[in-house]
Amino acid sequence: MSSSLRQAFTTLPAQIRAVTATVRNPIEALPPSVFHERLVERHLGRQHIVYVCAPDLVREALVTHASSLDKGEGLRRAIGPGLGKGLLTAEGTDWKWQRQALAPVFRASGTDAFLPAMIGATNRCVSALENQGGIVAIDQVMMRLTGRIIIETMLSSPEAVDADAMAEGLGVFLKQTRWSLLGDLLGTPEWLPHPGKAKGLAAARALRDQALAQIRTRRGIDPSGAPDDLLNRLLIARDPETGRMMSDEEIIDNLLTFLTAGHETTALALAWTLDRLARHPEIMRAVQRELDTVLPDANLELDTEKLARLDLTRRVLRESMRLTPPAPIIIREVRAPFKLEGVLLEKGTRLVVPICALHRHRQLWEAPEIFDPSRFIPREGERPQDDRYAFMPFGAGPRICIGARFAETEALTVLALTLRRLDLTPELPAIPPGKLEITLRPSKPLLMSVRSRHSTMADS
Questions:
Q1: Could you tell me if 456 and 423 are in contact, meaning their C-beta atoms sit under 8 angstroms apart?
Q2: Could you give the CA distance from residue 390 to residue 365 in angstroms, rounded to a whole number?
Q3: Structural domain total, the chain
Q4: How far apart are CA 120 and CA 196, in angstroms?
Q5: pTM of the entire predicted model
Q6: For residue 304, what is the domain's CATH number?
């Protein structure tokens, strides 16, 4: 028996285990060495996979060699039916002009204009929880809330569409995408059925139909009299180089991209943060003291100046996103060969940046499994110069999330207004593991008991 054939038979059980783990939960399929090595290679089926696990190598791959990478057919196969060729999936000049046209939409001034919608939706949600009390699945509550926020910022009106139905449809679509990713990894034909595929594609079509209906309605309104929402900004967005504007199909692609990225990931960041914070009562009390100081009067309105003063709250959010990043993996496909740390990445190689492993890497973080918001206190000379490639919940490089400021503003707003009025207690004995379905979802509902802080303080 040849050495290559012997090696194939030797590694077959390991490959079967890796495939089985990928089907069950792709996070579990990560090689253990990604938590302590700089670069890890693996061959799975027909695929050469290179895991990049050091900040300087991440920068080299995603920035220096950005032109040699693209998102790959796997991602387009998985989410293309829903998100089309929007900013998340587009490549080359198609991506570049969309990025340039959309950049003004997410500037600081533009994001700050959406703050009243964030505050209004959050206050309504918190009031409902305060009146209801009892036990809730906080991940589902946050999904509904961020769904309403993104609908109001996209369309200016909570009555424009059924936000809960859109969030549910998005969940149905995303849930089945891991099968598409696995099929691409194993080389199965794209037409092959898999669990949930028909329902997922139907949900994607329904979402696109709803978006088109809103666009057609808005096209009939004089732009000068239209509300300053995300849809109107997309309708008037222009490529600064060519003056090109977006077609209806491109607007749909980007509306659904922002619905996915601005709703799903922020909801998960909030749910993981609330559950984890509630398991550390001393930190929870410190956060609430900060909120009572910044917002001492119930009649005081939250604004950007007050958000900027929430130092501890911001560190808590970031530490939670370190431990459970909502978008835990970056995947790229090599389209032009290059070397990384002496390893040749040939065309077709799958390059993976396991953000979830980078955030817990033993060479980068002290006691990486411990929840410690103080690690984000700036200390001169203690953190590496390329820290942005060690902590990257919004990605890195040219394709870093365009809505990062929007997402952080929204998350801080929700945390501030929720924890100022509510006490939350976890009902599960431990934080459940995360399950990768494009985003990192809890493997079981995050059940929490809810009680008004006013009643808590009255009882004490």
A1: yes
A2: 9
A3: 1
A4: 35
A5: 0.88
A6: 1.10.630.10
